[in-house]
Each structure stands twice: as structure tokens, then as C-alpha cells.
Amino acid sequence: TITYAVPAVSKRNSKLIGVAAVDATLEEIENILTSQQWGDVYSFLINKQGEAIFHPSLSANSRQNVMEDPIAVPITKLEQDNHGNPKLFNQLLREMVDGHEGKIRI
């Protein structure tokens, strides 16, 4: 289960009012990510260390199952070739790990 929580802070006095949180299982997140595919486009999920939590190549149902332990696989191993191409993916990865929003066409 993955939990995401944010504080609710008063705009009047900046005091903590409470916390809003949501829990989701990895299976629920995977179902959402796999339902949002268009042609060759796919989604993946990484942690703050840039390791794949979900990637189509790590799916148990995938014919391209490349690793047995998906938690320890750096996303670069799945998205780049042995020469580090596409190079632009490194910039995208840094921005994702830093929590930035946006898009880059690779």
C-alpha cells in the first residue's frame, strides 16, 4: 500500500488543521497506469531514488519480464540502452525525482 498525505493548514493563522490522506495498493495504481496506454505510449512509476516501482517490462504478465525484483531496478536500465541513449532521458529523470511537472518529447 502506498500512502500520500498532505497537511491542511489554516490560511488565517498558518496552524495545522489536520491531514488529508489517501491509500492505494500497487495493484490499483498499476490498473490505472495500464488503462492509460495509447499505441506505443506507456506509463511507469519510480521512487525518489529513480528505481522502477511499476514498468510494463516488469509486469508478471509481460513477455519482456527482465527482472525478478522490480523494486531494485533503476529506471535507466529499462528506458535507456547500454550507451545511455536517449541522453535526454537523464534530464527527464532528474526532473521527475525532484518532483517537477512538465513534459519532454524524446
Secondary-structure blueprint:
Blueprint: E1 2-9, E2 16-24, H1 26-35, E3 45-46, E4 52-54, H2 75-79, H3 88-97
Antiparallel strand pairs: 1-2, 3-4
Explain the overall architecture.
Helices cover about 25% and strands about 20% of the residues. The chain is built from three helices and four strands. It has helices at about 25-35, 75-80, 90-95, and strands at about 1-10, 15-25, 45, 50-55. The chain has a two-stranded antiparallel sheet with strand order 1-2. The protein has a two-stranded antiparallel sheet with strand order 3-4. Residues about 60-65 have low confidence and may be disordered.
- In one word, what is the shape? extended
Rounded mean pLDDT score: 83
Helix percentage range = 10-25%
N/C terminus separation: 32 Å
Briefly characterize the structure.
The chain is an alpha+beta fold and 106 residues long. It has helices at 26-35, 75-79, 88-97, and strands spanning 2-9, 16-24, 45-46, 52-54.
Notable traits:
106 residues; alpha+beta; two-stranded antiparallel sheet; two-stranded antiparallel ribbon; 3 helices
